[in-house]
Specification:
- Helix 4 runs antiparallel to helix 5.
- This protein is 50% helix and 10% strand.
- It is built from eleven helices and nine strands.
- It starts with a helix and ends with a strand.
- By secondary structure, it is an alpha+beta fold.
- The strands form three sheets. Strands 2-3-1-4 form a four-stranded antiparallel β-sheet. The protein has a three-stranded antiparallel β-sheet with strand order 5-6-9, covered by helices on one side.
Length: 421
């Protein structure tokens, strides 16, 4: 509010001049010639205050127009480019703005690339999908564009300045969008992980994509909305500040959080996942193996649809023999383990059929809609093609939609099946 009053009847922008420090031994004639070249630049009103002390000289340059407009920023570059018989250093409001923008522009692409790569990697390790991480990043970017658009419209262009109680300066502090981007992106991704983890959990349990999306939205909708409203209230409280940059930060992040929770997570994410269908969970074979080896999960015990018990994903030590495997399962499964035999594959063991076991016969179970992909049994969650058999050492994992028999040498083993162990 003070700046317009100072500019009334004044030439140039009060307080917005460039300051030049000349270092190096020079004669008064050389200083005078340099100041004349500076004064001849088209955006300069005048050159003031030549002060010489020893081997250094100091003077100021008054630009036309605003202190930080495009003309003042160009002038800072022109002054720095002028040849001089001594070293010169240029500072001032416009010069600092030019340096800040240059530093941000040089580092920002690396920062954005780092955030995007880490986000894509972590969401892939959570979901095992190639498409879901890309969707998450793009939808987060959508929330950010809404936030930045509103900030420019309100705080830079001056709309709603009366109701919000601020005076627009015609610009936004350079570092503020970077801070707002980091905070808003992190919060948006946090809500996205809540939703995706529940959808993935349900999809692994049932193999039904549409039902998993509905279940995930139903389980997390209230949580995400409540968390977003609480955080938005805090940000709006920050936005009541009379400092324009603080007001911009608070109201901008509040808008981004509400937009992400009530539009992106509640409408766009379920709609896009419904359109992409089962292709949402696609990944090439090498990435599926990577997810099977390093995938993230909550690690809690899963239960079968029939409630037979927890799905156990335990394997014998690498290189274990048949006797060691039988002894290992004996400690876990009780008397039935005495008839357990290890098949020809390192990662499976044959469970006895009902003809030579007192426990109920193991069954090859499948979910109502088997998953089209082969889920490794060690991935931390029960694969869609697996069902529990009471008293068995683990789940029967069927890489395809049909049951397989364990390799053996006699007919009694024809009724046996693959089981982890």
């Amino acid at each position: 509010m003070l700046s317009p009053g100072l500019r009334t009847g004044s030439t140039g922008s009060p307080g917005g001049g460039l300051e030049i420090l000349a270092e190096g031994r020079a004669t008064p004639a050389q200083y005078a010639a340099y100041t004349q070249r500076v004064a001849a630049l088209p955006e300069v009103v005048r050159v003031d205050g030549l002060l010489v002390k020893g081997d250094a000289a100091y003077f100021t340059v008054q630009p036309r127009g605003e202190a930080v407009d495009d003309a003042a920023q160009r002038l800072a570059g022109d002054v720095r480019a002028l040849p001089a018989p001594f070293d010169t250093k240029v500072t001032g409001t416009a010069a600092v703005l030019v340096d800040t923008k240059h530093a941000i522009a040089r580092r920002l692409p690396w920062a954005v690339a780092f955030i995007a790569v880490v986000t894509l990697l972590l969401v892939f390790l959570l979901t095992g999908s190639v498409l879901i991480p890309i969707q998450a990043v793009l939808l987060n970017a959508l929330s950010l564009t809404a936030m930045f658009g509103a900030v420019v419209w309100v705080f830079q262009d001056g709309h709603l300045s009366g109701p919000l109680g601020f005076t627009s300066s015609g610009s936004i502090e350079t570092t503020l969008p970077v801070l707002m981007f980091c905070v808003a992106f992190g919060l948006s991704m946090d809500y996205g992980v809540f939703l995706l983890s529940r959808i993935k959990e349900e999809y692994d349990r049932t193999g039904d994509h549409d039902a998993a999306v509905r279940h995930g939205l139903r389980r997390t909708g209230g949580l995400i909305t409540a968390a977003a409203v609480i955080l938005a209230v805090v940000m709006v409280a920050i936005g009541t500040s009379r400092v324009t940059s603080t007001k911009t930060l608070g109201l901008g992040i509040a808008l981004a959080v509400l937009m992400d929770a009530m539009v992106v997570r509640s409408l766009l994410v379920p709609a896009i996942m419904r359109l992409t269908g089962r292709a949402t969970w696609w990944a090439p074979a090498p990435l599926r193996r990577l997810h099977g080896r390093f995938g993230l999960s909550e690690g809690g015990p899963d239960t079968s649809p029939s409630g037979a018990g927890p799905c156990r994903h335990e394997a014998p030590p690498r290189g274990a023999t048949s006797d060691k495997a039988s002894e290992l399962v004996t400690q876990r499964g009780g008397p039935r383990a005495s008839s357990l035999r290890v098949g020809s594959r390192k990662d499976c063991a044959c469970e006895p059929s009902s003809s030579n076991a007192t426990a109920p016969a193991p069954r090859c179970g499948r979910s109502p809609t088997p998953s089209p992909r082969s889920t490794p049994w060690w991935s931390g969650s029960r694969p869609p093609g697996c069902a529990a058999a009471t008293g068995t050492a683990g789940w029967a994992t069927t890489p395809t939609s049909s049951c397989r028999t364990c390799p053996g040498t006699n007919s009694q083993e024809s009724s046996r099946r693959w089981a982890p162990g």
